[in-house]
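Notebook entry, structure prediction.
Reason for the run: the old model in the group folder had no record of what sequence produced it. Starting over properly, with the input documented here first.
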Amino acid sequence: MGATGASQAEAATETETQTETKTWAEGQATPPKRVLIAADKFKGSLTAVEVAERVTAGLRRGAPQGGEGLRIAALPVADGGDGTVDAAVAAGFERREARVTGPLGAPVTAAYALRGTTAVVEMAEASGLRHLPHGVFAPLTATTYGSGELLRAALDAGARTIVFGVGGSATTDGGAGMLSALGARFLREDGTPVGPGGGPLRDLATADLSGLDPRLADTETVLASDVDNPLTGPKGAAAVYGPQKGAGEDDVAALDAALAHYVRVLERAVGAPAAEYALAPGAGAAGGIGFGALVGLGAAFRPGIEVMLDVLGFPAALEGADLVITGEGSLDEQTLHGKAPAGVAAAARARGIEVVAVCGRLALAPVALGNAGIRRAYPLTDLEPDPARCIAEAGPLLERAAERLAADFLT
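New structure, fully documented this time:
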C-alpha cells in the first residue's frame, strides 16, 4: 500500500504565501513555515474535512499578517470507524455508492471509496447505528448483510486490496450476515437459514463457507479497527458494546451465548482456527464482524489509524512539516488506545515534529497528553462550557480555538 498511499498524499490541500514571519513562541528564531492539519471528525458536529477547513480559517486569522509565509496542508484522517470513506475521498479516492440491505432489513444507500484496485469499505455505511431511526435499536436482530453486499460491490468494481474499516455498528451478529451476503450458508436443524442478527445464532446447526465469493481468495483484506476485543466473554462484543446498541442485561447474556455457539459450529466447519480467531485481537470489533472477517475473508487485523495513515499517504504528507495539528471530538482515555489523534501524534513524534490538538472536550491531564506526544490541546469547552451550544456552534468555536493556537505557536 505504500505506493498508493504516497500518491494520495498529493491530494492534501495546500495553500502558500510569500512573506516570512519573524518570531514565534518559546524563543525560537522562526515560526513553523509548514503546518499539517491531520484531524478526525468531531462526531455529531463536524466532519474531518470541515474540521480542517475551520482550523485553516482560524490559523489564517490568528497568524501574523494573515499567515503570510505560512503553508497549510490538510489531510483529514480516520481510524476505521465513521468517516473513514470521507477521509479516503478527501485524499483522492473516488466515491462509489451501492444500494444495500440496512441493519433492520430495509434498503439503504452506502458509499465506499476506490482508487485503482484499492477500496476502502466502511461497515457503518451499510450496517451502522446511523441507519437506525432515532431511539430505535435492534440488538438481537440487526444484521451485517449489507456490509457483505458493500464488500461485493467493491469486488465487482475491481478491488483486489480492501481496507475494511469497522466501527459504529448497530449489530452484534459476529459477521454472519456479512458472510451470508458473500455466499456462506448458516442453517438451522431443519435446513432453513437462521434469521438475521446475533440472537438467532442460538439456533444455528450447520455452517458452510464453501460458497464464499472465490474472488476473496485473491484479495488482500485488512481489518482496520480501533478496538482489540475478543469475540466473547466479559471483554467481548456483546458485553462491552452491546449496551451501546440497546442491549439490556438479558440481551447481552443471550448474544454472548449465541456468539459462543456460533464459534463452536464454525469449528466443525473450518476447524480449530475458528476458536483461535474468536480470541484474536479485533474479533469483537463492530459486534463481532471482525471475527467474521478473520475467519471467512482471510483478513489481517491492523490498528485502524495505522492502516488508514498508510492508505491516506500520511508519511509523505509529513515531509517538511514543522507543526502537526490533530484532534477529534473528545480527547479522553479512549484516544490513547488507537484513536486517530494518538496515531497521528506517534507518527509525527517519530519524525521529531511537534504536535498540538484541537477537540470538543478535553478529559486528559497534561501529563497524559505529553506521553501521547501532544504538547497542548485546545478544547472548545474552554470557549463555550455549555455542551449543547458547543456542539451546535462547533464550527465558529473551532475557528476561535485555532486563532488561539496560532497566537501561541505561529507568532
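Summary: The radius of gyration is 22 Å.
The old model has been moved to the deprecated folder.
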